[in-house]
Amino acid sequence: MxxxxxxxxxxxxxxxxxxxxxxxxxxxxxxxxxxxxEPVDKEKPLFFSGPGLVDLQINGIHGIDFNVxxxxxxxxxxxxxxxxxxxxxxxxPTVITNxxxxxxxxxxxxxxxxxxxxxxxxxxGGIHLEGPFISPLPGAxxxxxxxxxxxxxxxxxxxxxxxxxxxxxxxxLAPEWEAAPAFIExxxxxxxxxxxxxxxxxxxxxxxxxxxxxxxxxxxxNGIPLMLQRHPNLxxxxxxxxxxxxxxxxxxxHLPDAFIKVVRKxxxxxxxxxxxxxxxxxMPPGEYHSHIGGDVVLDKNKRxxxxxASGLLAGAAKSLLENVETLLEHGLCPLAEAWxxxxxxxxxxxxxxxxxxxxxxxxxxxxxxxxxSVAIKMVIKDGKVVFNH
Length: 389
Known about the structure:
seven-stranded mixed beta sheet; 11 helices
């Protein structure tokens, strides 16, 4: 469905704010203006409203892959428009381990898309570089190509950053590399958020990374071997670090419900939801060929697995909105908490770590709710209607 900016039936629309529970009236004479608790019809509002969803880790969407050097500016624009139709008003295209030349090419294309299209520029909060400075060991590296994994290299990162026009705002790395602490300190001083992921770090290495400035756990519970020492281990160590915000994939496939419950109890507002979506999110079930891992199968439940590999996961295929729906469907939390973990929690995390989010506060999503199913009706980005169903 293509966005139809400006197609508005009502100039005043009462909605129930999905987080606060208050009634707010959206004034479409000027969509940037929101009046809270204005007198309206006593009947329950037909629609919910909420802040825009924010995805800090997304590898692709709707057939568009952010990890191939053939990525085009037009594809980035199309991805942004599709994500807006899903209520996702801010996203961090995530570039994983690849050859240096391919990473340089991809981040350049993402930067060009921002320069050439104001809407894309407003939607992309930054680029998330997931690798190549991760663990090369089986279990930890996941689907990342071990041929390109390497130790943290500040000069190489600066080459990536220059080609990205300074838009890399987050990097995932493994803190067990000897060069990691010094790299983390330099990254943080330069305004880049450092997240721990695809790692087999021990307790002291996690602690040292946090002391150096690491502030997030990338898809906590994933990107680690299936079998871990009972204790200590990397999950316990990251849960215990109060300065680490936990990013989790809540698609009902990557993590069991019990694990999500525990993370919620421990981290509270320092927990946020990411999609880690691949280009298969938004695509129909079927067989596809991936540049990572070869042939994959996408089933009707949105599970992506390597063909002929006994169901081994090959990425995520649910958008951030679908992650919110999964939280509701599994009864893991009410709408207010599910939406907050996918919107305000990541925004507060970015703001706390000095990433500019000023324009975000003019983002709104209007939707209807049927059980656990969310139907997006209207999306406002930076005070302008960009999608209207």
